[in-house]
Amino acid sequence: MAVPQERLATGAVATHGDTAPYHRLLTPPALAFLAGLHRRFEPRRRALLAARAERQAAWDAGQLPDFRADTRAMREGDWRVAPVPAALRDRRVEITGPVERKMIINALNSGAKVFMADFEDSSAPTLANQLDGQQNLIDAVAGTIAYRSPDGRDYTLGADPAVLVVRPRGWHLPERHLEVDGEAMAGALVDFGLFAFHNARALQARDRGPYFYLPKLEAMEEAALWDGVMAHAEAELGLPRGCMKVTVLIETLPAAFQMHEILYALRERAVGLNCGRWDYIFSYLKTLRAHRDRLLPERGQVQMTVPFLKAYSELLIQTCHRRGAFAMGGMAAQIPIKGDEAANAAALEKVRADKLREVKAGHDGTWVAHPALVPVAQAVFDQHMPGPNQLDVLREDVQVTREQLLAPACGTITREGFDNNVEVALRYTAAWLDGQGCVPIHHLMEDAATAEIARAQLWQWLHYAARPGERNDCVPLEFADGAPIDMALFDQLLAAHAHRLRHSDLPGARRADEAAALLADLTHADALGAFLTLPAYDHLP
Ligand SMILES: CC(=O)SCCNC(=O)CCNC(=O)[C@H](O)C(C)(C)COP(=O)(O)OP(=O)(O)OC[C@H]1O[C@@H](n2cnc3c(N)ncnc32)[C@H](O)[C@@H]1OP(=O)(O)O
Ligand SMILES: O=CC(=O)O
Ligand SMILES: [Mg+2]
């Protein structure tokens, strides 16, 4: 029986939208738990978001990120994170994916060591997606999850499922369907809170966590906030302190300057850091948006081998291994290509090369986006990492400087690269508005992070190209044939792609015009918006 709205409102949390199907999830005790998280931690979350804006204002005024003077002792001191639990000591291949029922089962059965269930980059946070996802995970933790596809195929869990790790939303996103004292809750606290409330005890009893991936952190204080949230949750749920373990994505440029500090803030529960390369590229663009000498060339030219990305990944490995934490690699965007053997072999080869670079650099494991890529990544790690991890590879040879982390990557902008950014930004946004947080476009996985790169680059190229008299020889702001990069071209391509999408059967076709209007606003705006998903969230059901 559905819990009536009024009861929820007078109990702990007021709900909006059709929450009736979720009465087993949004029970009064679960809502009271969420309300406790909100009341205790929301003021700090807001203060930390305001601190982000202050730092960005300084960078916009000409300063550049740097290592912190006030935390030198943490960087130089001799300390290690708490021991890594047995279930996470071999993480050579981790599959990621949205919290959709069939995909959860496929991911858990994929042969990967870990499945990262994603409420974040690959999820469009509609009420239904987030709450169905929670219900699916309850069933997965119970081992009872099952699914029958429309064509009659049955899915159940196999004998040796992957270890579950859950990624809640980042600190910036609200969840307007759940309100405490008239304030929207943080998406992060809703995702974390519901999962922990319903599953933490069962997972802890099996020595399986609960385990989390933490996205988009920008400072050690944000890591400390997560530590406080988890310590509080452990106490409330009667769990041993420190049983909730976390792997932090280093996927913002500011966080790359605070890797030791972030591990230190979470040292009772941190088991590793991960190179979230796509958001990291986006964050490089956003953080340095006022610095004309640090534009980036088109997306295809910003590979992990360019100096600023190589420096960041090596610093991550060195930092982690000095502290006894895992240094996880990231996501290659290629996915299998059906019906074209040669193209498929070429895509798989790119994934293989990426994983080979990672394992040789000292990473302890990596991410794949699709079950067919598990054996590809596993073969590379099995061959080059005979033990369960390579924590003993200390990379003391690595000397990464501030300049290396900030070094611009030179290259070009081609018409194809510009057009691809317009197409990807539009098609992804439209799919997201239609409830799909991850889609294949031209045989690449596109999610919130990759789409952010596309739309941030468009803004940067167009706004800088419009300023006459300023040059950037590292990334020339014109096409190779000398044709201009300008808003007229952007508007024309956006209209053409919206027209094509509207008349297709591709994901998001029916939201093409809304997505185009949103992108036009973001791209014409005087300032580069912090997140595409913030204005887009107002359009979600
Ligand atoms: C930047 C970052 O944050 S990266 C992390 C976030 N991104 C992700 O996690 C990407 C996850 N990947 C995906 O969502 C999908 O692979 C896509 C959208 C890229 C492609 O999906 P599709 O076009 O459906 O792939 P495809 O048709 O080849 O799928 C074949 C089968 O594999 C399954 N599958 C594909 N990807 C996954 C996955 N990541 N996890 C579990 N199952 C998967 C499909 O459900 C399908 O199952 P079925 O045969 O039982 O019907
Ligand atoms: O979350 C991962 C990323 O690359 O972004
Ligand atoms: Mg990311």
UniProtKB/TrEMBL annotation:
<dbReference type="InterPro" id="IPR048355">
    <property type="entry name" value="MS_C"/>
</dbReference>
<comment type="similarity">
    <text>Belongs to the malate synthase family.</text>
</comment>
<dbReference type="InterPro" id="IPR006252">
    <property type="entry name" value="Malate_synthA"/>
</dbReference>
<dbReference type="GO" id="GO:0004474">
    <property type="term" value="F:malate synthase activity"/>
</dbReference>
<keyword id="KW-0012">Acyltransferase</keyword>
<protein>
    <recommendedName>
        <fullName>malate synthase</fullName>
        <ecNumber>2.3.3.9</ecNumber>
    </recommendedName>
</protein>
<dbReference type="InterPro" id="IPR048356">
    <property type="entry name" value="MS_N"/>
</dbReference>
<keyword id="KW-0816">Tricarboxylic acid cycle</keyword>
<dbReference type="InterPro" id="IPR044856">
    <property type="entry name" value="Malate_synth_C_sf"/>
</dbReference>
<dbReference type="Pfam" id="PF01274">
    <property type="entry name" value="MS_TIM-barrel"/>
</dbReference>
<keyword id="KW-0808">Transferase</keyword>
<dbReference type="InterPro" id="IPR011076">
    <property type="entry name" value="Malate_synth_sf"/>
</dbReference>
<feature type="domain" description="Malate synthase C-terminal">
    <location>
        <begin position="413"/>
        <end position="540"/>
    </location>
</feature>
<dbReference type="Pfam" id="PF20659">
    <property type="entry name" value="MS_C"/>
</dbReference>
<dbReference type="Pfam" id="PF20656">
    <property type="entry name" value="MS_N"/>
</dbReference>
<dbReference type="InterPro" id="IPR001465">
    <property type="entry name" value="Malate_synthase_TIM"/>
</dbReference>
<dbReference type="InterPro" id="IPR046363">
    <property type="entry name" value="MS_N_TIM-barrel_dom"/>
</dbReference>
<feature type="domain" description="Malate synthase TIM barrel">
    <location>
        <begin position="163"/>
        <end position="407"/>
    </location>
</feature>
<feature type="domain" description="Malate synthase N-terminal">
    <location>
        <begin position="21"/>
        <end position="68"/>
    </location>
</feature>
<keyword id="KW-0329">Glyoxylate bypass</keyword>
